[in-house]
């Protein structure tokens, strides 16, 4: 069973009993943030959805993707994951499940985007698996690439305060929903940011930390480094409490 909401103590993650908890796991890539190199479709996720709506109509599109999200991860997957000795699953999410660009700061479909997140969080908890909630695609694009569902290849998130305000709004909603769940190992506010000015990312982390902590003072924040989670300029002035700073090491892939 979970030992209460996880926290950091020095360089360790601990339960409320003070004992270290070592998290071993993976990410559920290609699920609620579809990536073309994982799922095999061309282009970006939002383009894929738009094309399917045009061809199939919204009703059939919605039915297809509801089943896609359901069958992508089932209880059998949670059982298999746990059987390998793994105890943590990172859940990448696209903001478009929760908010529409043409209707910002309004929870989409009365929060229907949380249906499968809740389901997977609960399935994982049943099998002793923690989850980390990862906002993988942000309004405006936190980096220029496909995995941020960024069709413009311009990371506009860093140049427009309104995009940043919307992310703060969404994280307050997410934090309110999961603040009492001990099987949620924490929140990953931005996946692989790419701030070309370097100082804006740590400044935004200082802001988002306050926004999340106003709702949930307890869960760990998992904070990616800049330039696709690979560098740390200007971070020395913005070290935040109860946080883990994440490095994504792609050296084996040659970049």
Automatic annotation (TrEMBL):
Domain Glycoside hydrolase family, residue spans: 73-252
Keyword Hydrolase: yes
Keywords, comma-separated and alphabetical: Cell wall biogenesis/degradation, Glycosidase, Hydrolase
Entry GO MF terms: beta-glucosidase activity
Signal peptide: none
One of the record's GO cellular component terms: extracellular region
GO terms classed as biological process: cell wall organization; glucan catabolic process
Gene3D superfamilies reported in the protein's UniProt record: Glycosidases
Domain of life: Eukaryota
Family: Belongs to the glycosyl hydrolase 5 (cellulase A) family.
Protein name as catalogued: Glycoside hydrolase family 5 domain-containing protein
Lineage, highest ranks first: Eukaryota, Fungi, Dikarya, Ascomycota, Pezizomycotina
């Amino acid at each position: 069973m979970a030992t209460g909401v996880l926290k950091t103590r020095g360089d360790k993650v601990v339960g409320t009993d003070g004992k270290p908890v070592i998290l071993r796991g993976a990410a559920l890539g290609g699920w609620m943030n579809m990536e073309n190199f994982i799922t095999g479709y061309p282009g970006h996720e939002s383009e894929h959805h738009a094309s399917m709506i045009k061809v199939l109509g919204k009703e059939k599109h919605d039915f297809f993707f509801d089943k896609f999200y359901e069958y992508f991860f089932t209880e059998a997957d949670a059982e298999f994951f746990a059987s390998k000795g793994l105890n943590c699953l990172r859940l990448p999410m696209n903001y478009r499940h929760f908010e529409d660009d043409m209707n910002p700061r309004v929870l989409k479909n009365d929060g229907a985007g949380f249906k499968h997140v809740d389901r997977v969080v609960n399935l994982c908890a049943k099998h002793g698996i923690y989850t980390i909630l990862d906002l993988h695609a942000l309004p405006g694009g936190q980096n220029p690439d496909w995995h941020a569902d960024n069709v413009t290849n311009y990371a506009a998130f860093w140049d427009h305060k309104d995009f940043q305000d919307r992310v703060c709004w969404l994280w307050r909603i997410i934090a309110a929903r999961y603040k009492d769940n001990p099987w949620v190992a924490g929140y990953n506010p931005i996946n692989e940011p790419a701030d070309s000015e370097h100082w804006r990312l740590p400044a935004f982390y200082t802001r988002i930390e306050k926004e999340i902590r106003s709702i949930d003072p307890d869960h760990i924040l998992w904070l990616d480094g800049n330039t696709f989670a690979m560098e740390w300029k200007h971070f020395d002035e913005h070290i935040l409490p109860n946080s883990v700073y994440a490095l994504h090491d792609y050296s084996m892939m040659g970049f």
